[in-house]
């Protein structure tokens, strides 16, 4: 040990010593012994999870240890606070001892090492215990003993039991990337004020309870949509790009230690119906994180298979397949175009008795008693503005969901898909209730493209969908029994800082003169999006702008952006803010001259290999209405959204197998405790 400590002391003074910051050997594992789930994790009583142990032996680099030979004779124990001595994990969970696995991985210690192409090599010995559960609430300590005296401990908390089902249904709306700043801007565009007083409001403004959730990943403060969705759905934080697992260091992206998600729990415990609706391609992170267990969100084909068939590669649990699955992303369904094993996934779903629809007309005709797959285009659904204001932008696309080289023309929106999903889930769930996740995906996608108007259009579409959902739940008699939540997975550094005279801007000769068109404070004026201009009438109904392209527009922008041009007007085609430039590498982006050509250049703050905006640090809002709404006030972690939902659904279970408890659980399942 002394030798090791001396080495570290010397290296600590060198500039390139491991910081584990920009790059990390393994995010959740600062020592050479890794316990996954790591320290400080929470669990729902009875929730399935896998436990992986890794012992690292760095071959070279600043952490080189033991000649690169990992300890294969490590042991692991678990102890419950106040529950007696630590026990061997295999004995505690009554499992056979798994085989030791071995692999090697490489990583860069920092940017200097990457520039020098000097990857550090690490040899690993590992074991994984699959499908465990802890039933008794309390604190547990897991201890990994390795290298003859080294210890890594993980303190876990199993939260209190909550077996009573207080909400029959939950509808979880996710405005992907949606912040309070965006909601404020959308309200300004979609609603009229007179002398500072709004004449109408967002539906969100009528929710009785608002909270804030902190979105950080387990090992970075900026999150992506994969692990943030996973935290909302499972109560376990993870690493960027990972869903339903704690990321391990093995080469296999499917063997990482899994955690059970809300739909897997709901199916197993209550047999409820569940569904997902998204305006993204349905293999995207937010919808697939309900069922996906992988370190790599980009494994689109396999993730669609996991959505239909559950995890088939490893011992796990069966979520029964979604009762409704509506969105875009035909690529993962058409045989050979990106589908799992090249199979026709329309056929695979049809074989599992799903009605398959490809357009809005067919969607409306789906029988409510059947499982339903609706894939309405390739890629993401065209956004609300292009569907409703600039439909020419949808006519030249080759996004027909059948695979034909044609445009998908009969497209549903978020509201059509969500209302139909509710009808199918309500019918199929019956007394067992349902869970629906409905995602407005392009708030995020269009914010990435700095296309503020298209992002805010989809935010207004989300609000309109929530409004229609509340009315529909009331009409079918389910409003009192349904918890409706509206939240986001993360934010973008977007805000509005003034008004713009876009006509004056256009008529100036230089960038510096054009910037004078931006009016701040007393020159910001009032919203003109509710003022009809001659010849401009979009007639898209109340709660949306009557003019999307007023002379006096909002001056909006980003806390982080690539080089770009701004004219603050509705972009006639979806926006591409930054592009490559001849003579520069393809990973180097400059302001796109064809975007807002009459605008001015705003140089970026991001590394120049970023072509779009990126996610930001901000907490995001949680709007709650219905049973358990009061538990959603305050500020909490994103994982708490899961625990609050799980407690409201009575998913925190004691061991159903234990004598004396079985009867009460069976009574719970069968009993009419839903009211
Ligand atoms: C580690 O060893 C490998 C060769 O096995 C080499 O490519 C790499 O540059 C070395 N890394 C460091 C940090 O020395
Ligand atoms: C199952 O595992 C294999 C091997 O890792 C992988 O190629 C395949 O994509 C996985 N399938 C699914 C559906 O996860
Ligand atoms: C599909 O429905 C048929 C007829 O009701 C039934 O026999 C079959 O088991 C179902 N298949 C699946 C995969 O659920
Ligand atoms: C909608 O899909 C159905 C098949 O489900 C097809 O018969 C119909 O022609 C489609 N309608 C349009 C407008 O594409
Ligand atoms: C669509 O295609 C037509 C014919 O090629 C062309 O005239 C038109 O400008 C295109 N529209 C858009 C929005 O790209
Ligand atoms: C933007 O950066 C470029 C160099 O990359 C510079 O030539 C130009 O003057 C900058 N423009 C502004 C408006 O700052
Ligand atoms: Zn997101």
Automatic annotation (TrEMBL):
Pfam families: Alk_phosphatase. Gene3D superfamilies: Alkaline Phosphatase, subunit A. Keywords: Signal. Residues 563-590 are annotated as: Disordered. It comes from the Eukaryota. InterPro entries: Alkaline_phosphatase (IPR001952), Alkaline_phosphatase_core_sf (IPR017850). Its EC number is 3.1.3.1. Residues 1-20 form the signal peptide. Belongs to the alkaline phosphatase family. This is alkaline phosphatase. It comes from Apiospora aurea.
């Amino acid at each position: 040990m002394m030798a090791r400590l001396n080495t570290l002391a010397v290296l600590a003074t060198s500039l390139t010593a491991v910081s584990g910051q920009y790059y990390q050997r393994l995010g959740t594992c600062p020592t050479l012994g890794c316990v996954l789930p790591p320290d400080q994790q929470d669990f729902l009583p009875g929730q399935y999870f896998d436990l992986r142990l890794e012992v690292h032996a760095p071959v070279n680099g600043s952490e080189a240890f033991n000649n690169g030979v990992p300890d294969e004779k490590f042991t692991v124990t678990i102890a419950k606070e106040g529950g007696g001595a630590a026990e061997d994990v295999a004995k505690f969970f009554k499992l056979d001892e798994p085989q030791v696995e071995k692999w090697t991985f490489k990583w860069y210690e920092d940017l200097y090492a990457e520039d020098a192409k000097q990857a550090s090599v690490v040899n690993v010995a590992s074991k994984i215990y699959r499908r465990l559960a802890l039933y008794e609430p309390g604190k547990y300590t897991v201890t990994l003993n390795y290298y003859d005296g080294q210890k890594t401990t993980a303190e876990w908390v199993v939260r209190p039991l909550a077996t009573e089902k207080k909400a029959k249904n939950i509808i979880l709306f996710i405005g992907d990337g949606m912040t309070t700043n965006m909601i404020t801007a959308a309200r300004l565009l979609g609603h009229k004020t007179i002398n500072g007083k709004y004449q109408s409001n967002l539906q969100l403004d009528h929710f009785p309870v608002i909270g804030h959730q902190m979105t950080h990943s387990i090992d970075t403060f900026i999150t992506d949509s994969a692990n943030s969705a996973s935290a909302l759905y499972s109560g376990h934080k993870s690493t960027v790009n990972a869903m339903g697992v704690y990321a391990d260091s093995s080469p296999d992206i499917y063997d990482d230690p899994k955690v059970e998600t809300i739909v897997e729990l709901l199916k197993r415990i209550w047999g409820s119906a569940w569904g997902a609706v998204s305006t993204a391609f349905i293999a995207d992170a937010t919808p697939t994180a309900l069922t996906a267990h992988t370190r790599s969100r980009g494994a689109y084909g396999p993730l669609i298979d996991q959505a239909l068939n559950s995890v088939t590669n490893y011992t796990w649990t069966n979520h029964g397949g979604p009762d409704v699955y509506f969105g875009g992303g035909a690529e993962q369904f058409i045989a050979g175009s990106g589908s799992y094993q090249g199979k026709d996934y329309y056929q695979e779903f049809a074989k599992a008795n799903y009605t398959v629809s490809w357009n809005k007309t067919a969607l409306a005709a789906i029988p409510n008693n059947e499982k339903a797959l609706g894939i309405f285009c390739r890629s993401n659904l065209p956004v609300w503005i292009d569907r409703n204001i600039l439909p020419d932008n949808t006519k030249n696309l080759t996004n027909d969901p059948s695979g034909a080289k044609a445009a998908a023309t009969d497209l549903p929106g978020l509201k059509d898909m969500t209302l139909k999903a509710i009808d199918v889930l309500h019918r199929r769930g019956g007394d067992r209730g349902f869970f629906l996740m409905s995602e407005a995906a392009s708030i995020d996608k269009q914010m990435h493209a700095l296309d503020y108007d298209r992002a805010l259009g989809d935010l207004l579409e989300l609000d309109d969908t929530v409004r229609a959902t509340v009315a529909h739940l009331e009409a079918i008699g389910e409003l009192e029994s349904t918890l409706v939540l509206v939240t986001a997975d993360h934010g973008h550094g977007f805000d509005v800082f003034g008004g713009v005279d876009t006509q004056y801007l256009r008529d100036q000769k230089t960038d510096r003169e054009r910037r004078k068109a931006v009016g701040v404070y007393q020159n910001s004026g009032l919203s003109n999006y509710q003022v009809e201009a001659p010849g401009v009438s979009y007639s898209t109904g109340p709660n949306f702008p009557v003019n999307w392209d007023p002379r006096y527009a909002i001056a909006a922008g980003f806390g982080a952006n690539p080089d770009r041009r701004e004219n603050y007007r509705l972009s006639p085609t979806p926006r591409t803010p930054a592009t490559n430039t001849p003579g520069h590498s393809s990973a180097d982006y400059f302001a796109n001259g064809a975007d807002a050509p009459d605008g001015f250049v705003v140089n970026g703050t991001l590394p120049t290999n970023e072509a779009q905006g990126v996610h930001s640090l901000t907490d995001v809002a949680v709007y709650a209405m219905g049973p358990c709404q009061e538990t959603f006030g305050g500020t909490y972690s994103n994982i708490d959204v899961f625990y609050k939902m799980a407690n409201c659904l009575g998913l925190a279970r004691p061991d159903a197998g234990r004598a004396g408890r079985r009867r009460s659980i069976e009574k719970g399942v069968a009993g009419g405790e839903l009211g």
